[in-house]
């Protein structure tokens, strides 16, 4: 699949670095299942707030890219890293044959913002371009429902444009369940003559309490009709998961019909929920 082929959706899947050897074994099995069924264009690997999982991210990237056919896109953040550390990390990724990155400022750790040499993701994008030219395909984060720290929608969008124009190739959105938020965001990009692909991030629905907690933290809205139905199914996991699969599969279909250039699945290191959605939309 090619990001340049707008007729073929670019499917990608996101993992987080496991904490244990058993978790890594499970992840390798999940990776294989998703590869065999969905065959994503790439897998991405997150890092923890403040760069806390830097080593585990690297270890996971190395595990997954031992299959040379596989495109792995590590997430990279300027939070808690010096420019020298970032430059060293970029060199290491180049040596590993990595040519795609998801480039972020990163979340501010609970104990507060560390001293950063680069403050925002646009500066990191510019730094990567300065150090490595066009080597990397750079993905950035987009927030159709606005970033939780943003002062105003207009400011947030202005900063998104700055970040994109610093040298990004494409963007992946925070998840959302209201398609209007996405189409409105894409229209605003078109009006601003920003023509990079904006790939919707897709969060499966498998657990009510976790989804609510996570959504409150990252500023993603769960529409009332979904929240009410999930609450009603809280003690009936099968019905909750079936409902969640139908809601998210329908969202994916609507997005692709509306011209979304791909889908980025937040897998949470599990394959079942993603495969259930996939089987409904393929
Ligand atoms: P930025 O684009 O820098 O924006 C951060 C905030 O600052 C926004 O409110 C923006 O409006 C504002 N801002 C931007 N530029 C300026 C400026 N010049 N002056 C003042 N304000 C400004 N988090 C992790 O910890 N690990 C991950 O692996 C991870 N992966 C993610 C993947 C995706 C696809 C997405 C959507 C998010 C991910 N996140 C991850 C979460 C992300 O790190 C947080 O949302 C973080 O708070 C913001 O990162 P950013 O790159 O969007 O920041």
Q: Describe the biggest sheet?
A: 8 strands, parallel, barrel
Order of helices and strands: EHEHEHEHEHEHEHHHEH
Highest-level CATH class: Alpha Beta
> What is the spatial order of strands in the main beta sheet?
1-2-3-4-5-6-7-8
| Coarse shape | globular
Arithmetic mean of pLDDT: 93
Number of domains: 1
| CATH architectural arrangement | Alpha-Beta Barrel
**Percent helix range:** 40-55%
Number of alpha- plus pi-helical segments: 10
Keywords:
single chain, 282 residues, alpha/beta, TIM Barrel, 8 strands, binds flavin-adenine dinucleotide
How is the secondary structure organized here?
Elements (H helix, E strand, L loop, with lengths): L9 E6 L5 H17 L4 E4 L8 H11 L7 E6 L5 H14 L3 E5 L16 H12 L4 E6 L10 H13 L4 E6 L3 H13 L6 E5 L5 H11 L5 H9 L4 H21 L4 E5 L5 H10 L1
Parallel strand pairs: 1-2, 1-8, 2-3, 3-4, 4-5, 5-6, 6-7, 7-8
Helix pairs in contact: 4-5, 9-10
The structure holds flavin-adenine dinucleotide (FAD).
Flavin-adenine dinucleotide binds next to strand 4, helix 4, helix 5 and strand 6.
Account of the protein in words:
With 282 residues, the protein is α/β, with parallel strands linked by helices. The model is unreliable at 1-6 (pLDDT under 50). The protein is built from ten helices and eight strands. Helix 4 runs parallel beside helix 5. The protein has a single domain (3-207, 241-281), classed as TIM Barrel (Alpha-Beta Barrel), CATH 3.20.20.220. The structure holds flavin-adenine dinucleotide. Flavin-adenine dinucleotide binds next to strand 4, helix 4, helix 5 and strand 6.
């Amino acid at each position: 699949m090619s990001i340049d082929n707008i007729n073929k959706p670019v499917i990608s899947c996101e993992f987080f670095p496991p904490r244990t050897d058993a978790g890594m074994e499970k992840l390798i099995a999940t990776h294989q299942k998703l590869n065999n069924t969905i065959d994503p264009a790439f897998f991405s690997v997150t890092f923890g707030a403040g760069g806390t999982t830097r080593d585990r991210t690297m270890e996971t990237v190395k595990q997954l890219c031992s299959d040379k056919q596989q495109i792995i896109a590590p997430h990279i953040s300027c939070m808690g890293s010096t420019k020298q550390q970032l430059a060293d990390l970029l060199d290491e990724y180049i040596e590993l044959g990595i040519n795609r990155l998801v480039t972020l400022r990163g979340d501010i750790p609970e104990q507060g913002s560390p001293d950063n040499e680069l403050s925002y993701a646009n500066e990191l994008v510019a730094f990567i371009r300065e150090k490595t030219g066009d080597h990397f395909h750079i993905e950035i984060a987009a927030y159709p429902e606005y970033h939780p720290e943003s002062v105003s929608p207009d400011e947030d969008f202005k900063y998104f444009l700055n970040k994109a124009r610093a040298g990004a190739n494409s963007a992946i959105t925070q998840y959302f369940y209201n398609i209007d938020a996405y189409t409105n965001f894409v229209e605003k990009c078109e009006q601003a003559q920003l023509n990079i692909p904006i790939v919707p991030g897709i969060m499966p629905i498998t657990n009510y309490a976790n989804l609510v907690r996570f959504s409150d933290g990252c500023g993603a809205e769960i529409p009332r009709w979904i929240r009410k139905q999930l609450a009603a199914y809280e003690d009936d996991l099968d019905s909750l998961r079936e409902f969640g699969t139908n809601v998210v599969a329908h969202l994916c279909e609507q997005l692709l019909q509306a011209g979304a250039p791909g889908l980025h699945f937040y897998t949470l290191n599990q394959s079942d929920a993603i495969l259930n959605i996939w089987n409904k939309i393929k």
